[in-house]
Amino acid sequence: MDAIVSVTQLSALPADAWAAMLAQAGEQSLPWLVAAARQGVPRAQAILAQRLLTGDGLPADAEHAVYWFRQAAARDDIEAINMLGRCLENGWGVPVDAQLAVYWYRQAATLGLDWGCYNLANLLMSGKGIAADRAAALVLYRQAAGQGHAKSINIVGRFYEEGWEMPANLAQAAVYYCAAAVGGDFRGQFNHARLLLDKGKPQQALAWLRRIPDSATPAFMANLRSWLRISPLAVIRALSEEAPFQP
Asked: Which of 113, 139, 203, 242 is the 20 to 30 A CA-CA neighbour of 29?
């Protein structure tokens, strides 16, 4: 490891350079991560935790992941702070504790992390671990959307479409859904396609619908198949039979 990069060099590496460095390192990256994490490099601790959580290159171990997220969060790694909230909200390696998840999300949001804003806003919408407050959630979604966070952009579009905390404005909703679709959010792609169909543009809608399987969850895909099958347009119904849309 030292012949390529030292722990001292790793500790000085900017956060946005880690992904490129690890990609270049390939299979050799794990020993680097472990060594740097043990030496107290917070970005290495956070990335090692994520790999332990997902089983990326080593056996999945959620409890061990939480340990390293805590180590990185104690050293102010903003993404680790947010991920502690995720672990607590979902019970990954720790008992579910929505109130404590709110605490960590709020820290991440205060530090300006788009995902922290989004996750805290979701809890404010649902009233999970905190009193429901849709207006406060909108402020956070807008903050994340301003940073280009595609999922938040889509939800701001939903606020416009539904008339939540503002007069309904379908034209403005369409602008946000388009931006979310371009940003890669599968729900934004669906909403953008849905409004294109309403405007009588099925071919444009099909192009966006075909992008959804690349990133959508299995639950969303199941709902999407049902929606496609009851479409009044034969070309949309036929989409549900294409391979990417099959369970």
From this structure: 113
